[in-house]
Design a protein that fits this description.
It is a single chain. 18% of the residues are buried. α2 runs parallel beside α10, α3 packs parallel to α6 and α4 runs antiparallel to α6. The protein contains ten helices and two strands, in the order αααααββααααα. It has a domain of 120 residues. The chain is 76% helix and 2% strand.
Length: 286
Amino acid sequence: MNQGLGASSVSAGSRNNANSFVERTLLALNETLERSFFAEESARKKGLLQEIDPRVKVWTTLGLLIVVSLSRSLPALLGLFALAASTALLSAIPAGFLAKRVWLLTLIFSGVIAFPALFLTPGPDVLSLPLGLAVTRTGLTSACFLLLRTTTSVTAATSMVLTTRWNQVLKALGTMRLPVAVVLMLEMTYRYIHMLLHSAADMYLTRKSRIIRRLSGAESRRMAAANTGTLLVKSLQMSSEVYLSMRSRGFRGIPRTLNDFQVHPGDWIYTAAVAGASAAALILGG
């Protein structure tokens, strides 16, 4: 009797795990789509970076990242972080999004890497801990440098991406003399990921709406495999149709957009401000 109850509980648990796997997949797909929609909506808002020419944003962001990596002064890095954070807030990026999705995650991942340096880097002790461990001043300084650099870099890059539409980012990257094949690959990859995520979510929801009982683990895996195969076939068919559509509309190997970039006085002011802050950071960190 007890063995039968145990077996039934195990099978029920496996079915719940299988269904929870599908649920988690759906939630992950929907969350990814929501992030993509959020980026598109953020690029349409009125803000500081939304009014800046995409080429200026790409070049200034790249220069800022280089300066952050070269700076050797904590006050200078703090100033650059304040610049990146204030620019993001003035660009209508919510502070809650920055705190939860950017700063918190960056600090967690960077902290895992920087934590051993607190104890392993030689130097004068700052804090003594049990088991013979001690936090060194050199290790604490190195950890602060790593955290500030990663947080500032991620904030600047995220602000640029969230305030610029993807096709404009790629067109701006073309000014860096990237090969046309690389730009096209990035563009098509972004569009295909978005399309495949949407198709996968629709397939799961459609299949789930037609199921009236819980699926076993084997059935759930077979359904996932079938959906994956169907999605692969659809993507291959779609790639041929998209290419033929592009050719019929005049595509001859060079991507073109309807909007042309124009540099305004505000772009020069923004460039001068970022260049001045970067120069000051390099001077202080020299």
